[in-house]
């Protein structure tokens, strides 16, 4: 089955800096890659996603890149703000099932 | 519109008791998923429904876990004879169709087995 590895497990940045979280996946059949943000005591919230027919997608301060050959994808957050502090999960969809990475705890210091 | 709702939000139960967790998906979503999230861990897939059918039950940890969905809407996850290792947050998600991406999650039910 699919295996998703996510790094780093924790990330601490200063407000205004950029943050990058990276994931690799194992199943070449995976074709959909969402990113979720989870705040304390809440369910994961979909923040951006990318499908295998594109290499990059951007939504305001958030962007995701995908390299299908290398089987890795990344989340980029620019101009970070304290409210970006949360746990971020990547996922890969294969045969209709999402497999999640272990999560990255992002802390943005004012 | 209304998102995915789950009840109860918190459940404390004694070891050996049965518990039922409920999920109300987004109206019109035909696919429904259950995940388990242990403290500080990622999301572990349990089961999904397309309509009322559950084609893939491979993620259920043991035969103490079961789930059903009726009327293509509400789903119930039942854990029989709960054990302490069942303590976790149980998350439900729904999507328009199974395998078409964009799963939307509910707030979860925090289960504590004492």
Explain what you see:
The complex is a heterodimer of chains A (110) and B (114). Chain A has 110 residues and is mainly β. Chain A has no helices and eleven strands. Chain A has strands at residues 4-7, 10-14, 19-25, 32-38, 45-51, 56-59, 62-67, 72-77, 86-94, 97-100, 104-109. The mean pLDDT of chain A is 94. Chain B has no helices and eleven strands. Chain B has strands at residues 5-7, 10-13, 19-24, 31-37, 43-50, 53-56, 65-69, 75-79, 88-95, 104-105, 109-113. In chain B, the strands form two sheets. In chain B, strands 2, 4, 5, 6, 9, 10 and 11 form a seven-stranded mixed sheet that branches. Chain B is globular. The chains are: A mainly beta (110), B mainly beta (114).
The value of Rg of chain B in angstroms is: 13 Å
**What is the arithmetic mean of pLDDT of chain B?**
92
Radius of gyration of chain A: 13 Å
Q: Would you count the extended β strands of chain A for me?
A: 11
**What percentage of the residues of chain A does DSSP assign to strands (E)?**
over 45%
Class based on secondary structure composition and strand pairing of chain A: mainly beta
Catalogue the unreliable spans of chain B. Answer: none
Largest sheet of chain B: 7 strands, mixed
Order of helices and strands of chain A: EEEEEEEEEEE
> In oligomeric terms, what are we looking at?
heterodimer
The amount of beta strand of chain B, in percent, is over 45%
Q: Biggest sheet of chain A, in brief?
A: 6 strands, mixed
Query: Which geometry of chain A do the CA atoms define?
Result: globular
Using CB atoms under 8 Å apart, which protein chain pair has the greatest interface?
Answer: A-B, 24 and 20 residues
Would you kindly provide a brief summary of this structure?
Chain A is mainly beta and 110 residues long.
């Amino acid at each position: 089955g699919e295996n998703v590895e996510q790094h780093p497990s924790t990330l601490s940045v200063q407000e205004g800096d950029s943050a990058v979280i990276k994931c690799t996946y194992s199943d070449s059949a995976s074709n959909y890659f969402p990113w979720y943000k989870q705040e304390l005591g809440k369910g994961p919230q979909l923040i951006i996603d990318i499908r295998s027919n594109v290499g990059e997608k951007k939504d305001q301060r958030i962007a995701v890149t995908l390299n299908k050959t290398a089987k890795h994808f990344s989340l980029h957050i620019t101009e970070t703000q304290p409210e970006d502090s949360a746990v971020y999960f990547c996922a890969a969809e294969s045969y209709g099932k999402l497999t999640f990475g272990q999560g990255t705890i992002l802390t943005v210091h004012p | 519109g209304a998102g995915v709702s789950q009840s109860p939000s918190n459940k404390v139960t004694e070891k050996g008791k049965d518990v039922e967790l409920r999920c109300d998906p987004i109206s019109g979503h035909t696919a429904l998923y259950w995940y388990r999230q242990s403290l500080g861990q990622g999301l572990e897939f349990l089961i999904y429904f397309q309509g009322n059918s559950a084609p893939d039950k491979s993620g259920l940890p043991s035969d103490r876990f079961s789930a059903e969905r009726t009327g293509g809407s509400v789903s119930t996850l039942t854990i029989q004879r709960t054990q302490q290792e069942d303590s976790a947050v149980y998350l439900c998600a729904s999507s328009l169709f199974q395998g078409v991406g964009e799963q939307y999650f509910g707030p979860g039910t925090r289960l504590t087995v004492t």
